[in-house]
Design goal:
There is one protein chain. A six-stranded mixed sheet has the order 11-10-13-18-15-16. A five-stranded mixed sheet has the order 1-4-9-8-6. A five-stranded mixed sheet has the order 12-20-19-14-17, covered by helices on one side. It is built from five helices and 30 strands. Helices cover 6% and strands 41% of the residues. The chain is mainly beta. The protein has three domains: 4-153, Immunoglobulin-like; 162-308, Cupredoxins -  blue copper proteins (Immunoglobulin-like, Sandwich), CATH 2.60.40; 322-459, Cupredoxins -  blue copper proteins (Immunoglobulin-like, Sandwich). Bound molecules: CU-O-CU linkage and copper (II) ion (CU). CU-O-CU linkage binds at residues 91, 93, 133, 135, 262, 395, 397, 440, 442, 444.
Length: 460
């Protein structure tokens, strides 16, 4: 069994990749100001050979949003400083935290005006790979760069020889490396508007070194606004150890797994033995498959085996009681409703989509009414139907669900905050409504979200 100490020895390698900010437990006082400040600000980005991309947006002091590293069960706090010239917020995607820290304008907090700040403070209950992003003018803000990976560590997690975190996303850039329009209306009404430049941590197909024959924890976050990925690894053994932040019940070999915007995947990668050998992470979906990143073996083989890895520590999740569950229908559809009003958080000006026939353009004000009201502590089953011709990564804030029966795909047991529903699929998602508040339930293809495929549910 690998020991914690082995990780510390490997920290040289791991630290070089992670580029993380270690901030666990720096905030111990009850109501002191947050020790950590994170600004949202404009930046220039080095994304293409055509030169610097102007008008990008980032978090923190560097070019690329930092990987925030938290500890499960340890208080965390952070002040968002808004140095953009438009309002913003931060949503902590996948974290089951208090509603008032969820970062959704109108529902959970006021938006944060330029020059203002907001103190976020919470204790993450679950370990795993998550991410953070604005919930205001999201197509523009995420599209221009505001999306960072968030890792919650568990001291009992198995130890790897290295850890690599990849923020996988596209950019809508022209040949001169400058931003072009974030969307085309006709595409928003279909699969969404795709980016033109694909990156991992804001670099095209970067190469990472890792110990030959070593075990790498590869944390992947699909933070793009549109693109769905079908992931494979060539040249190294790769097993899925967690999905969307939660450990899988039983590890399985990665053999093409499709994930949509908002979803995460944790892989155990066994590096090739030969020094200089290169493994590749590829997306094989669509007409233009791509290499997303490569991993090169360095040093003498450590001769590890994935089989030696103990399982990840389980997260403290509530167990649904299916015998007492209440079923709630959610039907996705296209919509031809009137255009949404302009909101301070940016409206795309169209309603193309709806949930239960109600379109809500998300970060515009006046949400109608919650689509469902749930009693705290009770079990519910969402019966979700997708009679549209598109896939939709459906994300629920503040709670997690277990996909159960689908008419379209075999379900491996797992717990998630984002379910990628296929065209014509009917799926049952079971959950315990154990977190009170108003929680957004929306498609994470941001053009769908912002043209109506958004709703919210209330837990009381
Ligand atoms: Cu990734 Cu409503 O969020
Ligand atoms: Cu969608």
């Amino acid at each position: 069994m690998l020991k914690r100490r082995a990780l510390l020895k490997g920290a040289l390698v791991a630290g070089a990749y992670a580029g993380g900010i270690g901030l666990a437990a720096r905030h111990s006082g009850a109501s002191a100001a947050p020790a950590l400040h994170l600004s949202a600000r404009p930046t220039e980005a080095h994304l293409t050979d055509a030169g610097v991309t102007r008008g990008a947006m980032t978090y923190g002091d560097g070019e690329v949003p930092p990987v925030l590293r938290l500890r499960r069960g340890k208080a965390f706090s952070l002040r968002l400083d808004n140095r953009l010239d438009e309002p913003t917020t931060i949503h902590w995607h996948g974290l089951r935290i208090e509603n008032r820290m969820d970062g959704v304008p109108f529902l959970t907090q006021p938006y944060v005006y330029p020059g203002d700040g907001f103190d976020y403070a919470f204790t993450p209950p679950d370990a795993g790979t998550f991410w953070y992003h604005p919930h205001c003018n999201t197509l523009e803000q995420i599209g221009r760069g505001l999306a960072g990976v968030l890792v919650v560590e568990d001291p009992d997690d198995p130890v790897f020889d290295a850890e690599i975190t990849l923020n996988l996303r596209d950019w809508r850039l022209g040949g001169d490396g400058q931003f072009i329009a974030q969307f085309r209306p006709r595409d928003a009404a279909r699969a969404g508007t795709f980016g033109t430049v694909r990156t991992a941590n804001w670099r095209q197909a970067p190469q990472h070194d890792a110990p030959a024959g070593g075990l790498v924890r590869l944390r992947l976050a699909a933070t793009d606004v549109t693109r769905i990925l079908d992931l494979v690894v060539d040249g190294a053994e790769a097993q899925v150890i967690a999905r969307d932040g939660n450990p899988v019940e039983a590890r399985f070999a990665l053999d093409g797994l499709t994930i949509g915007p908002g979803q995460r995947l944790d892989l155990a990668l066994r590096m090739p033995d030969g020094e200089g050998s290169v493994a590749e992470l590829r997306d094989r979906r669509g007409t233009r498959p791509a290499v997303l990143a490569t991993f090169r073996s360095v040093g003498r083989s450590l001769k590890r085996e994935i089989g030696d890895l103990p399982p990840l520590a389980a997260n403290p999740l509530p167990d649904p009681d299916l015998s007492s569950a209440t079923e709630i229908p959610f039907i996705l559809s296209a919509s031809a409703e009137e255009r949404p009003k302009d909101g301070i958080c940016g409206s795309l000006g169209y309603n193309f989509w709806a949930i239960n026939k109600v379109p809500w353009a998300d970060d515009t004000g006046d949400p109608t009414a919650p689509l469902a009201e749930m009693k705290a502590g009770r079990t519910y089953v969402f019966n979700v139907e997708n009679p549209t011709p598109q896939l939709h990564p459906l994300h629920l804030h503040g709670l997690v669900f277990r996909p159960m029966n689908s008419n379209k795909q075999a379900i491996r047991p797992h717990v998630t905050d984002t379910y990628l529903i296929l065209p014509d699929e009917k799926v049952q998602l079971a959950l315990v409504a154990d977190n009170p508040g108003d929680w957004v339930f929306h498609c994470h293809i941001i053009e769908h979200q912002k043209t109506g495929m958004t709703s919210y549910i209330r837990v009381v």
